[in-house]
């Protein structure tokens, strides 16, 4: 890996927005005012579709760079890095043009695979870090092949890199999120490709972390300030967010709350502990993996509920942590694998006429916190210690109540990352070999809050099981 004397231009390819921002060279801190954002509105359909218009997305991102240039923020750039959503896929024709929109992680369309009794999914999961789930290309590619005759497939970040540099490649980090990577070798997994029904030459080539390219002549003319600036391979947003919060070794779990939420630990790929069935594992770069659990309801749940309830405050004002009588099971967007609870399965238990909008909001935020806590305790067990915890992401930055709620639910101190742009910061850290520190406030859980959550937990777990059973009916 290399460092840079210049500032860093970070491209953040999210589900709800694409952004371009400038970071300082030493600590990858956002330069004040040097951020441009293009809002994304995915299209959702009754058949389970959740897609993004590729042309609009890329043009919006290019417009962000134009905005930074107009405001004089593209001077003294020494590197271009990318943090991107995992799991997206686009079907391509034989000229490399898109046949489909960007199919996002939230899309539930795929094919059911019956591989017979000889298929060992536990061995497959241990090797690839994934399951035969609709989230991954092992089920998405057969579905896309059944819908037409694609010549190839790529993810959103692969196509953004191709648009900027002319080279269609992917990173070991992005490829690991497709469910088709052998984590140990860093190459496409033969069994996963056989299941998907494609050869490796129909997918983007995997380049090492140290690979760099440069902008094509078209974009060097458009942004002359970026001539000769190296473009680094993209990092999956989960891995980038972990590193960006300061959670970059096996002593620390990073909890990030954005559109969705996750709890993860970064650790060496060599000598990695055996992967439990309930957790996934992807790659950060050539030497590191990230193991964790993700949750489909977080910032999206908060935004939906504040809108539905027409709340004037984003905080559940007046409600004690763990104090709401209402129990909310946050399955509105279903569950991530290996659980199979479908979307539309959110539940409130214990409603009464004296409950307020703040009670409902608090119950949902508490439910999401308890879900994350389930993953944290699995990671504690896996790594043989009570992990330190850092909190980061837009949801963390926006809600002091949620920060305190998570801290009380975990029943341990937490450190809040001072920077909200953890994905961009982490992508810079991975590409350039940086070790960012959280730099934010330290929270100590209040005993009364911890006790209320502990008393609530058994009831939550019983009702959670009922909700999952009802969703399967």
UniProtKB/TrEMBL annotation:
GO terms for biological process: carbohydrate metabolic process. It comes from Kribbella capetownensis. This is Carbohydrate kinase. Transmembrane segments: none annotated. Residues 8-244 form the Carbohydrate kinase FGGY N-terminal domain. Belongs to the FGGY kinase family. Pfam families: FGGY_C (PF02782), FGGY_N (PF00370). InterPro entries: ATPase_NBD, Carb_kinase_FGGY, FGGY_C, FGGY_Carb_Kinase, FGGY_N. It comes from the Bacteria. Residues 254-431 form the Carbohydrate kinase FGGY C-terminal domain. GO terms for molecular function: kinase activity. Keywords: Kinase, Transferase.
């Amino acid at each position: 890996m290399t460092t840079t004397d210049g500032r860093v231009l970070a491209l953040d390819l999210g589900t709800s927005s694409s952004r371009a921002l400038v970071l300082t060279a030493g600590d990858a801190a956002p330069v004040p005012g040097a951020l441009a954002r293009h809002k994304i509105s995915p299209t959702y359909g009754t058949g389970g579709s959740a897609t993004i218009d590729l042309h609009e997305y890329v043009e919006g991102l290019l417009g962000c760079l134009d905005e930074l240039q107009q405001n004089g923020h593209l001077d003294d750039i020494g590197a271009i890095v990318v943090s991107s959503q995992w799991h997206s896929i686009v079907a391509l024709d034989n000229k490399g043009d898109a046949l489909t929109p960007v199919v996002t992680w939230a899309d539930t369309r795929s094919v059911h695979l019956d591989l017979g009794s000889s298929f060992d999914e536990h061995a497959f999961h241990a090797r690839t870090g994934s399951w035969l789930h609709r989230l991954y290309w092992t089920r998405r590619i057969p579905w896309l092949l059944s819908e037409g005759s694609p010549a190839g497939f790529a993810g959103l970040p692969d196509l953004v890199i191709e648009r900027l540099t002319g080279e269609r490649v992917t990173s070991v980090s992005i490829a690991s999120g497709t469910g088709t990577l052998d984590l140990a070798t860093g190459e496409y997994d033969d069994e996963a490709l056989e299941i998907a029904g494609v050869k490796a030459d129909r997918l983007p080539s995997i380049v090492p972390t140290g690979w760099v390219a440069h902008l094509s002549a078209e974009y060097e003319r458009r942004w002359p300030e970026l001539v000769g600036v190296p473009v680094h391979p993209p990092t999956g947003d989960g891995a980038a967010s972990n590193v960006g919060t300061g959670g970059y070794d096996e002593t620390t779990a990073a909890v990030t709350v954005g559109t969705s939420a996750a709890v993860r630990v970064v650790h060496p790929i060599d000598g990695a502990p055996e992967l439990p069935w309930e957790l996934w594992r992807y790659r950060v770069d050539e030497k590191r993996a990230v193991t964790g659990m993700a949750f489909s309801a977080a910032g999206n749940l908060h935004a939906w509920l504040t809108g539905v309830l027409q709340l004037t405050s984003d905080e559940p004002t007046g409600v004690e942590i763990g104090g709401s009588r209402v129990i909310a099971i946050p399955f509105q967007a279903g569950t991530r694998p290996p659980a199979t609870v479908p979307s539309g399965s959110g539940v409130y238990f214990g409603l009464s006429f004296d409950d307020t909008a703040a009670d409902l909001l608090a119950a949902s935020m508490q439910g999401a916190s308890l879900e994350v806590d389930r993953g944290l305790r699995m990671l504690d067990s896996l790594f043989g210690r009570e992990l330190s915890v850092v909190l980061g992401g837009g949801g963390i930055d926006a809600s002091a109540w949620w920060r305190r709620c998570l801290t009380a639910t975990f029943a341990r101190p937490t450190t809040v990352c001072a920077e909200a742009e953890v994905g961009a910061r982490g992508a810079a850290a991975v590409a350039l070999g940086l070790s960012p520190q959280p730099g934010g406030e330290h929270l100590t859980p209040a005993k009364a809050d911890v006790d209320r959550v502990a008393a609530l937990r058994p009831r939550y777990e019983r009702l959670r099981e009922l909700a999952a059973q009802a969703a399967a009916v």
